[in-house]
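Give me structure tokens for this 152-residue protein.
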Amino acid sequence: MTATVLQALEHKGRHLFTVREDTPIREIANLMTQNRIGAVPVLDAHAHLAGLVSERALVSALAGHGMDVVHLSARDIMARNVPTTTLDEDILKVGRRMTDFRTRHLPIIDNGALVGIVSIGDIVKFRVDEAERLASAMQDYVWRSDHASVGH
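Here you go.
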């Protein structure tokens, strides 16, 4: 059995940044830069997920609007109907969905509420750390047992 989104989220931490639909692009870019995040979920007036602003969306907005981009808000550039995941979903399936949808971030929904976001980097880091833990445990097992001795 592989790990779940909950395990990956606990591993990275649950801190979540969000913006409202009327948040200006400049504020979003500052938030993402200061916190070193690649995407931010956008919430509607009822605190439900309305969309996602990613680095790709910011670059596309700049390319399409030039300097007029400063007059735009989250609602103008956010991706709508973004794929999401749940806390109990297998992270390998989540990684596949990210690949299929060509997205690097998936909002996490639990009981209808946004509870986090997981990135492809979070999944890769979790899997690498998991592999290192397994390798270390196997090495400890071999060295602490008689499996490491060579019989003559």
